[in-house]
Amino acid sequence: MSNVPDLTAVILGLVLAAWLAAAAWAVWTGLSMKSKAQATLRQTGRLGRLLETSPALPLLVRSDGKLEASQRLMHWLGFDHLPAHISELHAHDAGMSRDDLEGLSKDVNLAQKSGREFTRAVQVSGSDKSLLIKGGLADPKIAPNGSALLWVFDATESQAEIRSLQEEKASARNAFDALSALIEAAPMPMWHRDADFQLTLVNQAYVRAVDAESGAEVVEQAIELVETIDGLSPKDAAARALEKGAPYERVVATTIGGQRRMTQVVDVPLGKSGIAGYAIDIQELEDARKEQRRFSESQRDMLDKISAAVVQFDADKSLKFCNLPFQRIFSMRQQWIAERPEFPRVLDRMREMNRIPEVRDFPEWREEKTHWFQSKDSIEENWLLADGTHLRVLANPTPDRGLLVIFEDRTEQAQLASARDILLRVRTATFDNLFESIAVFAADGKLNIWNHQFASNWRLDEEELGKHPRVDSLMQKMAGQLKQPARISEVREMVRTATSERVQQEGRITFADGRKFQYAAIPLPDGNALFTMLDISDSNKIEEALRERNEALVEADSIKASFLANMSYEFRTPLTSIGGFAELLDNDVAGPLTDQGHEYARAILQSVKRLGSQIDNVLDLSQSEAGALPIAKEKVNLNRLVEKVADHFADEVQTLNIDVELQLDETLGSAMADQKRLGQAISQVIDNAIRYTGKDGRILINGSGNVKQAVIHISDNGPGMTAGQQSKAFDSFARSRNQKAGESSGGLGLPLARQLVLAHGGDLTLTSEPGQGTLVSIYLPRQ
């Protein structure tokens, strides 16, 4: 019995020890949980502060329309406190407009019911602030089922920039459409060639000129307007223009509308865009030039014969000869002249016809003129007749004691001299009111003409300029106005070159006060040199500002490409985690899920797969644009490759009831290419066609080729694209063409496909018309 108390004590001791151990474990566990809770609170605080300072603020809309948001977001919306319901986000001077709120409410309801994501831009009432809202169904772990999570961005500046860009885009599109319509309606034939000098586009005037049915027929049959002349074909002329980097002009005979016409053909290089050309019918101009030449020759012959009135007298003072101008000027009949009247009688006849100057004593005047016969030297006089005629009279005694008198009508010269005086005054007034500085230097270097602007810019004294100084002394006075006085020698040398060597030169100089001028020395037909200066200070500042802006844009584009590549790599790690956890959830690793849960998990996996594909596309596109995309070429059977890619879309095509027809000719053959990359390019084009063709559509894949290249055409009967949409089709950041009214999405398919084809040395082109579908052509070289 003595052992019983000992056993009881042992058991009691064990119980107390176990209780003490349990108490110690509970204390340790509590302290550990407290530490974790404090760490969680600190992390939650940091996350909250980070969220409050982020560029995007969350807004939670519950299924009953109640709101949860930060005070900072309410300040963005202009509210002092958080409205209780989404319908209260509209106020007179705060919140959103009624239309924006109605649209947002519809987007939220649709997101809560279908889980569809949306993006909407709204304007804050009573301010110029613009907000960009991106929303979707909230994660059940964050909010109760049926709640929508909205992320709100302050897009005031970006929206203003977007509106500005939209206006510029609309303006550019209108200008392009107007230019296209103008070219199409132009009466002269116009065309465009690609880099291989093949015709790609002609206008209706070209079609009419070659008697073709349409522009497509002209391009397909390569019908040339101009024939090969002296071994120079139209393609050779285009090549010359491209080689020169400047328009190449030539005048050739061309058949237009069945008639041979002289035309002026001009080929204009457009850089990488190819070569444009146009032909001007100059047949009428050539005919007019020929007629003008014949008229001028006839006129010169006539002027050589009747340039002056000539009369000759014998030693007995009788009239010996006179020409037709003399008879006309003095109104003398041929019968009277045949009587060979003497010199005094001729003067009497002139007086009767009122063809001599007015004199006070005619007999004395006549006697004075009779002494011309005895003069030893030539006598020159100017007669002003009563009718205003100016005659230059030259009397020259002949060795046989006769007299030769020449009457030159100087009326026109006198009028021209008067007009010249008027023109000189007009020129002086014009020069003085020009913005440019004007100065004319003679061949000997003297200053002849200048305007007030010249004297003002160089701060020269008008009185000193009136002495017509030489260029050397004048330039010495002008040098002090320059920022670099030594450069005045360049100006002096240019003036000398213009006068002596007849060479035009130009340059720029900077004045000491900061003004910048563009100057030129131009040789004039009379041997003088024109020196002109134009103030370009303002335009130079604008040019510098534009250059700086361009450099900033280039740098921004480089940063954008680097950012996309880096972000694509950064997306892979979290995306892999999301996909892995979603797959574990779908496989019930974390516990059984409901049917809706499995549906959500599969939706996440599908989105992860598509996002992963998009990331791969971004990486490939960025590498291709940078020229770093690896291409491993091998001989690829193009027929099998196209069939394999088309089979990849069989399920999607069947779901959408799209009719896909393959027309692969044996001439498609094979090519040296990277099978994976080329298949990726073809897949992107087919995927794009399926996406925009829609249900019950039709897609045709045609393949053919020749010795040099293989061609794959992929066409659809979708909605087609406008000219503006086509211009943005290969821009990886442009909005893609509308699939249906109100829908648009950014796409990398066509830009990536084109980069992949270009990496193979080929080309990818797009042809589309609104309502007529789209045709994408892939050209691959055999080697």
List its salient traits.
single chain; 783 residues; alpha+beta; Beta-Lactamase; 5-stranded antiparallel β-sheet; 24 helices; 27 strands; elongated; transferase; EC 2.7.13.3; His_kinase_dom
CATH T-level topology of the largest domain = Heat Shock Protein 90
- What is the CATH homologous superfamily assignment of the largest domain? Histidine kinase-like ATPase, C-terminal domain
Name of the CATH class of the largest domain: Alpha Beta
Overall mean pLDDT stands at: 79
Strand order of the largest sheet: 2-1-5-4-3
User: What is the general shape?
Assistant: elongated
CATH structural architecture of the largest domain = 2-Layer Sandwich
**What structural category characterises the helix and strand content?**
alpha+beta
Note down, in words, how this protein is organized:
Helix 16 (471-478) runs antiparallel to helix 17, helix 20 (638-648) crosses helix 22 and helix 22 (675-693) runs antiparallel to helix 24 (749-759). Helices cover 47% and strands 22% of the residues. It contains 24 helices and 27 strands. The protein has eight domains: 1-50; 54-154, PAS domain (Beta-Lactamase), CATH 3.30.450; 157-182; 186-286, 2-Layer Sandwich (Beta-Lactamase), CATH 3.30.450.20; 306-409, PAS domain (Beta-Lactamase, 2-Layer Sandwich), CATH 3.30.450; 415-535, Beta-Lactamase (2-Layer Sandwich); 541-621, Helix Hairpins, CATH 1.10.287; 630-781, Heat Shock Protein 90, CATH 3.30.565. A five-stranded antiparallel β-sheet has the order 2-1-5-4-3, sandwiched between helices. Strands 7-6-10-9-8 form a five-stranded antiparallel β-sheet, sandwiched between helices. The chain is elongated and about 190 Å long. It is α+β, with helices and mostly antiparallel strands. The termini are far apart.
